[in-house]
């Protein structure tokens, strides 16, 4: 199966590619089934291998470099968190038909949370805060800066310019006010802390009770300002649960108003930049971005 291309330099990756790479490089798994699985991901094709593994094949230039980086992150934090994260089972190499480094990970069971249908929003908030609290305890020496671990400043113009494409679809006047407020918020005064840095619903897995069972896709992870973890506030939790999430973050981790404002900026930037870019190619990303912007345009400063 060939998926619609999201990027100009994206290559086609098929089930046959996954089967061939597994069979030639990891023959111990050659007899196991390979099937593509739906994903909101924007850089990797995902194939379930047997019952308990997943093959991730990057499909854009440069992301093969990210495989060993993420591998190192997973190996460092995998046993440290109170929820499951993928374990790296094998790292594959390019061949004559596929150009990038790739990997085989353990399959993490669970379902993506649907913000409008959370079974236990309070429990999910507590579980996520448990993970964030544990991440803050981990040593940061030698860890790279996370993808969203720095300041919002480099995104000021791209977000402002792209927001004009959403005029008439959203209350962009309100979004501009929130964005300017985020840009003007005081910077993080503390030391860098460990971050997942991409807490969208597609990277959270919940069990049948609605509790957090796993966190996947650590490609953006690293250290930095923890405000980017607040992506979850507007992407995972509806309004009433968002207030609870904020209250419990304040109680557990000392969340202050400046960090909330910067976090709101990260939510705006992610959604504003994603929605027009993926509008015709990734319905899941568009759905998440739309939901977040609908929540954000109701906010005030």
General description of the model:
By secondary structure, this protein is α+β, with helices and mostly antiparallel strands. The protein folds into two domains: 92 residues, 2-Layer Sandwich (Phosphorylase Kinase, domain 1), CATH 3.30.200.20; 182 residues, Aminoglycoside 3'-phosphotransferase, Chain: A, domain 2. The protein contains nine helices and nine strands. A hairpin with a 7-residue loop joins β1 and β2. α4 crosses α8. The longest helix has 22 residues. The model has no long low-confidence stretch (mean pLDDT 95).
Provide a brief overview of the structure.
This protein is of the alpha+beta class. The protein contains 9 helices and 9 strands.
Brief descriptors of the model:
single chain; about 300 residues; alpha+beta; Phosphorylase Kinase, domain 1; Aminoglycoside 3'-phosphotransferase, Chain: A, domain 2; 2 domains; five-stranded antiparallel β-sheet; two-stranded antiparallel ribbon; about 40% helix; globular
